[in-house]
Design brief:
Blueprint lengths: L7 H19 L4 H8 L3 H13 L3 E3 L16 E3 L5 E8 L2 E8 L4 E8 L7 H16 L9 E8 L2 E2 L6 E3 L10 H9 L3 E5 H12 L8 E6 L3 E7 L2 E2 L31 H4 L1 H9 L12 H13 L3 H24 L4 E4 L6 H13 L12 E4 L2 H22 L20
Parallel strand pairs: 3-6, 6-9, 10-13, 13-14
Antiparallel strand pairs: 1-2, 3-4, 4-5, 7-8, 10-11, 11-12
Helix pairs in contact: 1-2, 1-12, 2-3, 4-5, 6-12, 8-10, 9-10, 10-11
Length: 418
């Protein structure tokens, strides 16, 4: 008989990771609460937390004792803000932003800028990203922070290894090795993530009861995207970030999409598509960026009276409904979060969306599909990116007991992958 055991180092790493995860999830739990959540003994939790406090990873007493209970007072334990830091960079249509966050996930510094992503040369686009990150790192508030990871979220298809932007409707350039370029310039490990996937990550942290093992996050904005979680795992393809929901074909040979193809779901449900249909612009017209204020005015007109405005929103719902119904036929019904600026007009979209779902193979499940409106697109992308980066730092650096590495001292290649 062969007995399979767990090496002492592996067990120690696993237990440390469980304690750190419990603190990150709960905020400021007591040792007793950590033991209850993790299933570890009180003595094990006490020993691990003492080690982590000595290492500067956890702090004790921040915010005072937890709610009084019988017996000795329970002392709260929290994550030490100075233990580490991560940065998130978000590149979207004509916009770039960067945020530096401390170890608990609080914002230390943030910056946003406008840029013409459609016309910038490849090298210039990368240089803009590098320059913004450097400016953030050079701020007095960021001085001395040990930045262990940069999570770069971008609209478009990224490779499965989280290193490159393969394709995006916001730029004509393809296969941009963003992680390699930023690592060479900044000496900090970088991952490249699809923005909608990061929205799904954030939803799991915000509301794990609703967004748990299976759910769908659909972006309704200038573009249409999706983050998909199945059986508790973020769905990605073997070669790319996958889930290009907006570029599924709704009507072959139909309206022109930002991707250059015709008939995509986005070509009927993206903000530029709704504007195009509402104002009588030809379906073959080149997609243009529509301001949020203009889309809000269009929605107001659609609510006020029947006409092309209302029909355009209904057409968006139909395209989304047929695509979502086909997806549900494959994966079963799941909670759906509608994210982004277009979520504010979901009341105009939902009736035709549900009608379209009912006509698909997934229609028998239509009553079981629930929708939740989450307008703040950028904050979700940022939070998801940060939590993914911080979870990696917890698991692969802190739980292993590694000495933290800071600016100018990148991790080895083996630990870059999330």
């Amino acid at each position: 008989m062969v007995t399979v055991g767990i090496r002492h180092d592996d067990l120690r790493r696993r237990n440390r990771a469980m304690v750190i995860a419990a603190v990150r999830r709960s905020g400021q739990p007591s040792r007793t609460e950590i033991a209850a959540v993790t299933g570890l003994s009180n003595s094990t939790v006490s020993a691990i937390s003492s080690d982590l406090i000595a290492e500067g990873v956890l702090i004790e007493g921040r915010g005072g004792p937890v709610a009084p209970k019988r017996g000795r007072p329970q002392v709260a334990i929290g994550l030490a803000p100075g233990a580490a830091a991560v940065m998130t960079v978000v590149l979207s249509l004509n916009a770039l932003s960067a945020v530096l966050m401390d170890y608990p996930g609080a914002i230390v510094w943030e910056e946003k800028s406008k840029l013409d992503t459609g016309t910038l040369a490849r090298d210039a686009l990368v240089a803009e990203c590098v320059t913004m990150v450097r400016r953030c790192l050079d701020q007095p508030a960021c001085a001395g922070r040990r930045v262990l990871r940069i999570a770069f979220a971008v609209q478009g298809v990224t490779d499965a290894q989280a290193r490159s932007l393969l394709w995006s409707p916001i730029t004509p350039h393809r296969e941009i090795a963003l992680a390699d370029a930023l690592e060479r310039a900044l000496a900090i490990p970088v991952t490249v993530e699809n923005d909608c996937n990061m929205m799904a990550e954030a939803l799991r942290w915000r509301d794990p009861l609703r967004y748990g093992d299976n759910f769908i996050a659909i972006l309704l904005s200038r573009g249409i995207g999706m983050g998909l979680v199945l059986n508790g795992d973020l769905f990605t393809g073997a070669q790319s970030s996958a889930s290009e929901f907006g570029h599924m074909v709704h009507r072959p040979g139909g309206a022109l999409c930002r991707c250059g193809r015709r008939g995509c779901v986005e070509a009927y449900a993206g903000s530029y598509a709704i504007w195009r249909n509402a104002t009588g612009i030809a379906e073959t017209a080149r997609p243009v960026d529509i301001a949020d204020a203009d889309m809000a005015a269009l929605a107001k007109a659609a609510r006020a009276h029947a006409g092309p405005e209302r029909a355009a929103f209904a057409g968006a719902g139909k395209a989304l409904g047929y695509a979502l119904g086909s997806l549900v036929a494959l994966i079963d019904p799941a909670p759906v979060a509608i994210v982004g600026g277009g979520a504010g007009a979901f009341d105009l979209i939902e009736p035709s969306l549900r009608e379209a779902i009912a006509r698909t193979a997934g229609g028998r499940h239509s009553a079981a599909i629930s929708f939740d409106i989450v307008p703040e697109e950028l904050s979700l992308v940022r939070q998801g990116s940060a939590m993914r980066a911080l979870a990696f730092v917890d698991r692969e650096i802190v739980a292993r007991g590694r000495q933290a590495v800071g600016r100018g001292n990148p991790e080895d290649q083996s630990s870059r992958m999330a």
